Amino acid sequence: MEALQETEEVEQTPEDVNSLNISDFLDDLEADVTEEEASVPSDVPGFDWSSIDTSHLPSSYKTNSRQEKELLQLADHFLEQYTHLCPDRKPLFVHPVNECGVQKFVSTTLRPTLLPFPELYYWSGCASFVCDYLIMEPLKCPITAPSSLYSPTTILKYQRGNCFDFSVLLCSLLIGAGYDAYCVHGYATLEMCSLDQTQEVCPLLRKPPEVPEEEDPNKYRIKYPLEPQSKFELQQKAKKEEETEPGQDEEKEEEVVTEVEEPRRDPLHGLRVHAWVLVLSGKRKVPETFFINPFTGSHHSTTDECFLGIESIWNHRNYWVNMQDCRQGCKDLSFDLSDSICWEIMFSESDEPSQLPTESPKKDTDDMEKGEIDMSFEMPLSWVARIKVSYREYENPFSQGKKVILYNKAKLEKWAAYANEDGLVERVTVYADSDYTEAVEVKEWFKHREDLLYMREVNKQTQLITDYFRPGHPLLLKAHSYTSLEPETGHTVEYYHTARVDGLWKRFENATEMTEYFMGREDFLHMRHIELGERDKKMQMAGIGTDANPRPIVQIKEYFHRNPEKPADEDIEERIFMVIDDIIQLTYHLEVHDTIASKVVFCRVIGREKREDEIFLSRENSVTYQPWSSEKHKNLLHLYNLLWELREEQKLLKQQVRDSEAEMLNILTVREDEEANIKLSVSMYNTAKKGQQHEATV
């Protein structure tokens, strides 16, 4: 930060110096602070920390032990040396007062704790819990560290705090979970300090980076020579570009300035105090050092431009002061805490058992008089009581019932589990404008539903709804897209095909057609398309139901993958049954050297009455084109047997189509009943929720 201030002093113009005089700066600062306090999200505005009851707190909160007093003396001596050697640096955040007005060293305010919840064994679970459970409060002055630091137990009780309170609680949980975590006192951007995420993309809407598919190298591939180019012409072209670059760059810069408005400059940029958490690599198999913003619980690289500088860091064992240049933010900082050039440690770490000053106060007094103080010191135990979070508090982290976060053209809403009767826990609404007025898309996430629904997407423009299910649904549903639960209105259903005997993974149906997609079938069938006609209008007018008046089947098309065990002229690729016209058409696969596929067409004889059990075959009603087939395929008896098999297949297919229609009707009936009677499951280990259910039934 010292380096940052020096840079500003060097680069300031006379106009900037005149505009940033002391009186104007204080007036602007007061206005900025007032403006920020009005804009910071707070569910219960105007909370008075001075009115909290501290009478029930343990004695360790109200007094200091002898070890803590010696620790404060050593810290004061370190601060004296620090201010003498670095007079231009900002004051360190070392021993603020707690909720009882007693000075406490920041390292002893950390209380490493491992809570009995599986999610809190990982940094992501700890960060999510802290940012959801606490309500953010801004610092009273954005450019100075707070004068107080309350215990994590008090912060948990009132479920609110500033960035330092967030960081201390999160760091306590991370250290308890085995991470090499540290609280950081530094500087950040306005958006990070004020929890302004309106310019960021909602994390639930971020698409994972696409991994390009690597083509298999083929050493036998022909390498065509590149088009020949003249080196002299390339050199001349490069010279011309160099001559025209300066003028073009100026024009481009002018265009950018006129088209895109520059963001409003923050007058306090680089001065805004913020606290966050540093996690060093090594412990818990952390591969790379990273930051955690306690307000959002998000992971950040140490090179993130939102972090502008670091003054100091601390954990439950020691305190380090950053001695590195922060002109370029944190991206060039080294986090090797054993490097005394980069980090000034407050208490020298020694493997030998330390003799506390309290054991020989007379000797220590003599050393202090001589100006020689042994800074090796064993950190006292934390004065904070044990951190406790009940299961009910963990399951219901939102003090106001829900949490609302605004992102760039998106709004995220969070609820606790079982807070909504339909199991809704998260909802993201995507808007077309930045004023959050015109909704475009809605995504909802559910938990503990007995119908295993876990996500729903709603397109507000087309009104298309897509439900997603976890494995285990009685109907083996994976996804269901629809605009209405009425039949024949356009439904797309996806299944967990590995659990089905027929390998069906997707089916689409509307009033006039049905398409089915298959995977992993032994007959290599991968798609079936059915065209359906209109129902008999007379029967509809008579009030006859759809079961007795089915839609007539017009045509059935089936598509097959290549079966390598069969010759191509015996392996069917496409099979078409024109049911009403009584035509069957077969198209076979191609061999590598073939260009035209073999085909067989069976037609109905014109003028001959159709009989259900009769197979009539002649040269007139069969057309074959099999140039690569053997003589047996041209035999009329072979075609007769083939036609007989196809007739039987057609009967089975017609019955399968009726079964598919019945299955779709059953799915819609079951889904309509599930939505009308939503039930939430409760784990047998959730004794609190089980007790509530029992009381409700009694």
From TrEMBL:
Keyword NADP annotated: no
Annotated region described as Disordered, given as residue ranges: 1-21, 233-261, 350-369
Record-linked Pfam families: CEPT76_peptidase, MORN_DRC7
Subcellular location: Cytoplasm, Cytoskeleton, Flagellum axoneme
GO biological process, one term: spermatogenesis
Major localization class: cytoplasm
Biased composition (Basic and acidic residues): 360-369
Entry keywords, A to Z: Cell projection, Cilium, Coiled coil, Cytoplasm, Cytoskeleton, Differentiation, Flagellum, Spermatogenesis
Bias (Acidic residues) ranges: 1-14, 243-260
GO cellular component, one term: motile cilium
Domain CEP76/DRC7 peptidase-like: 273-346
Domain Dynein regulatory complex subunit 7 MORN, chain residue ranges per copy: 400-683
InterPro entries: CEPT76/DRC7_peptidase-like_dom, DRC7/lobo, MORN_DRC7, Papain-like_cys_pep_sf
Family affiliation: Belongs to the DRC7 family.
Protein name per UniProt: Dynein regulatory complex subunit 7
Lineage, uppermost ranks: Eukaryota, Metazoa, Chordata, Craniata, Vertebrata
Gene this chain is encoded by: Drc7
